[in-house]
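Let's practice the habit of predicting before peeking. Look at the sequence and jot down your guess about where helices and strands might fall. Then scroll down.
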Amino acid sequence: MRLFGSFVAVLSALVSAAAAAPSVLCIGETLFDGLPSAIYLGGAPLNVACHLAQAGVRARYLSAVGHDRLGTEAVRRLQAQGVDTDLIVQVREAETGFVTVELDRSGDASYTFVTPAAWDFIPTAGAAAAAKSADALVFGSLGMRAEGSRAAIRAAAAAASFAVCDINLRPPFVEAAVVADAARSADLLKLNDEELVPLASMLLETTEAGPSREL
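Done guessing? Here is the structure:
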């Protein structure tokens, strides 16, 4: 997508200005999208990590996969793209994430997420240290749907020198307090036109701000 490519280009420029050998930590959901045409590896922070690696940025990815073939395949594909996968853990609590995607006649998509999924169990240990050592952090609101991964992402965002949040509203995982917390934890937000008004409403509705960053 052109907008997604522009977002990656802006992020690459920001970290390039910060260091000779820039690095970005991406944290969040590892999942496979099951479309009518095929099955694709995805997840917003995962896609950013792959694009950054292609742009020459040192991209490190923190996530969780299951002890299954999809988890092994996800790690293999990320490594093939040049992404550092040393922070990806295998968990036994759930299988690797999978999403069934259905398209209506106008091409609009609806999503059915397997819940729980391995990426709901991203460990908190090491998240803050990894974020602190990077030039920038990328995470998304969807990755915070479960308390376990939410804690890991919050720890990373609090330690990061520069945090980017992808507002990714995927019903039913659109709890106002969680999404607003994600937005307030970032220095830069990535969202589309359809997400702007709902996000503004969530920010206005939530009285408990949680961690915030100076913009």
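How did you do? The longest helix spans residues 2-18.
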